[in-house]
Amino acid sequence: MPVNETVEVGAARVALPPPIAPSLPFHVAATTSADQPVQQQDAQEQAMQLPDQTTSSPSKVDSVSVPSAVRVGNRTVFTSKLPRQWSWKAFTSSARGDGVQFRHWVSKYLSMSEIEDFGSSLGDEPVSSLQEQLTQSNKVIPWSKGETDALVELARFYDLRWSVIIDRWQTKYNSDDRKIFPNCLRKVEDLQHRYYQIGSVLAQHRATQSIISKAEKIDPKQVDESPAKTTALPDDAQATSKPKSPSPKSPSHHATNIEALQSARQLAELDPSLVPRMQLPSTGTEHVGAKHFDLAEERKRRLLTDRTWNRSRQQEREEEKIRAELRLVEAQLRKLKKLNKHLVPEDSTEAAEAVLPNAAANVGKQPVSTSLPGPKRYGSFVPREPIDDVSLVQRDVVSAFEETAPVPTAGNPYLQSGRLFPPAIEGHAGLNKSTLKSMEEILQQLEVPKQPIATKRSADAYDAVRKDALTLLILQKTVLRKEAELASKKSKLIVLQQQPQLKGDKQREAKSDGDGCVADAKPLKRKTTKTKRPRSDSAGSAGSTEAKKPRKKLPTKVAASAIPISLTSSVTSASLTASDPVVKVDSDKLTAKPGKGRKPRIKKK
Amino acid sequence: MASTPRTNADGRLADVTACLPIAYGSIAFYLGPNAKGEFKTHRWTLYVRSPDQTFDLSRAISKVVFQLHPSFPQPTRELTEPPFEITECGWGEFEASIRIVWKEIADERSTIVTHGIRLYPKNTPQKNADPSTYMNTQVPVVSEKYDEVVFTNPKEEFHISLADAHKVKKLSYPLSKEQSVLKHFRTYGDEGDVQAMSRAKKHLEGELRSIKDRLLKVDSELDTVKARLAEFKTSTKPVAKVSQTKKKPKPAKKLAASDQPPSKKTKTS
């Protein structure tokens, strides 16, 4: 039978005196005793004490003043608060034959009967008494006695290793030649559920027994309490509330388990201080609703896991794709929601269109009233699926501006000069500082006034110009990046194609790869001077559409780039040559000079 | 430009924005020999006015609160009538805050702007030599700022009174009580700025177009190359034969290219 009481067995005691539990708000000890056992210093203790001390014999309060808060590790302990109360309790383990008693720091309110016997396990119980207890608990379970016995025996023998247990179970009841119904239908979760159910019922039973035995020992007299409330015995075997310790109000000696439990409950209802904070065994929490084993959840979990395990590659890829899309869409949505623009405006207009030289209003003459479709931002976009880079970039740019621009709200007038501020640098919608600087340089070159006058038209125009400049910069970066990617992929393709051929060819491959790598290297290098090259390039291409032809006349370059190009369509050849080394570009009909320094150059028309 | 605006239940016009231009700043005169002691070397005027000389500010503003430096007596000064200006004598430059409280019918929050009162012109040498070299009693130091106050969905009454304020033929108040200040009131125009910016925008549009074209091309190229790579990965063994056939498709301009791979083939075999 399990040990229900704290028995001070005379066998091997711990030779050392117990440490003093820190029951004061703070524990100031002047001396440290060298022969304190190490085992007393467990993590919990140290957390309770000030860091520069050990548990030692009677505290000598220094004249040291105690700080109000102390850092212990990464926590802060407030010394004014009462610390948790611990007690140094003894326990035995029936798994050990010699009945040696060890001690352990345990919450003061925890009844030792719960942890008295760490070593016992369910299987030590004679099964007959188990059966009686179960029938007493009024559970309607379609488990037969034989089944339960078998389960318990298996669990005991295999130390609760469920994978082994279920295997043995299946062998016994679900083998090919004979199937025993309903045993063969039991899945692992059913077995587990049954086992833990039994366990919790037994725990409850033991708890009530311990109350009874305690009450018997101390005071067998009946104490008249307030009329007993006949609350039903909780059948789900969750939390039980027990009286703290012997007190004048100890429960009277009851004959049946049910009454014992009821009186315990009465006590709890009478005075909340009598309800101990108890950790539910094997759940590690005090939460009353904590279940030892949630069958429904477990079933669901297993089903999902099986499905996930059995997915085909195709499905996996699909899911990955969908997740990526979802992430994108959610990010977009978050951005839009942040600006309250996730609703599609009726007719969205771009700011640029509002900037017309023949605008009706003159500056300073009258208050300009304009009716906009909705109090929206200037340059708002209809939210749609982010398909292409351009719209993505535009969206980012717009949101960066809207971080710093004033929000038009009714009843809160704002100043037009607020719209002239630079867009956000930090924050999730922020741009790079360098991008911003480049944008400012571009504006400077385009002779845009640094502090435009704060009128509506002018602010609109300024916004539009800045956004365009930023979009241009970001798109240039994207294009370069993609071209680099393209070049590398092409070289990879060549390698793959020519692999089955002999090594003689591989030298040629190396050459073509080299050229491809040259094409790689140049765009990568050019990223540092991105503002310079591509602009001159695009300006050149914008300026003279025949720029492509002269390039092809150079024979060496054609041959080198020929191999990659052969794999692609003719349309793309122009763009590839556009990513070719810079030297060629300069030699063409471009007026922009390969700049000095890093200033972005803009060809002026 | 303005369609007929609807009026909401709370008396505000829906989807209407009203911009009220405002000019605020300071004009400071160096008194020179007329200075009343060393603590009153300058006389300055801090004001809020409308850049349009026929606009009646009293229809829109109920009062203006000027917050001066604490060293002035009664540093918080409220003016309930135009012209909204404060004239003081002093010696130091400081940051004044101006709070414009709109009419009650407007039901709008008051607007606060700050302005640094400048007494000394920009080309003041570091180590003050003789003030008379760079200071002029006739030429004041003007620092004025133009701004517009934007009302979103203004109240209908307020909107009407704003419109009326412009129709006043003659102002009921002088633009400024200081005669010397009046001639330094200027008007503002945005034509120059707007034109410069529209020019810039046109240019940028051109650049954007070309970059977008480039992007499209790169994208389509990338797609084809990726498709090819994927094919390669799925079909491993028959690559030897398949690849050679793949090199055949010749873009129109690249005849030279297609010659090369077959020549390689002959070399190895």
Question: Could you characterize the architecture of this molecule?
Answer:
The complex is a heterodimer of chains A (605) and B (269). The longest helix of chain A is centred in the C-terminal third of the chain and has 43 residues, at 456-498. In chain A, helix 6 (188-218) packs across helix 7 and helix 12 packs across helix 13 (456-498). Chain A has helices at 43-48, 112-115, 127-136, 145-157, 162-173, 188-218, 257-270, 295-309, 313-338, 351-354, 389-404, 433-445, 456-498, 503-526, 533-543, 548-553, 555-566, 571-578, 582-587; strands spanning 69-72, 75-78, 86-91, 102-107, 368-371, 414-415. In chain A, the strands form two sheets. In chain A, strands 1-2 form a two-stranded antiparallel ribbon. Chain A has a two-stranded antiparallel ribbon with strand order 3-4. Among the domains of chain A are: 126-216 and 258-293, Arc Repressor Mutant, subunit A (Orthogonal Bundle), CATH 1.10.10; 431-495, no CATH class. Chain A is built from 19 helices and six strands. Chain A is mainly alpha-helical. Chain B has two domains: 17-187, Sandwich (Immunoglobulin-like); 189-225. Chain B has a four-stranded antiparallel sheet with strand order 5-2-1-8, with no helix packed on it. Chain B starts with 15 loop residues before the first strand and ends with a helix. Chains A and B meet through strand 5, strand 6, helix 13, helix 14 and helix 15 of A and strand 1, strand 8, helix 2, helix 4 and helix 5 of B. Chain B: Residues 244-253 have a biased composition (Basic residues). Chain B: Keywords: Nucleus, Transcription, Transcription regulation.
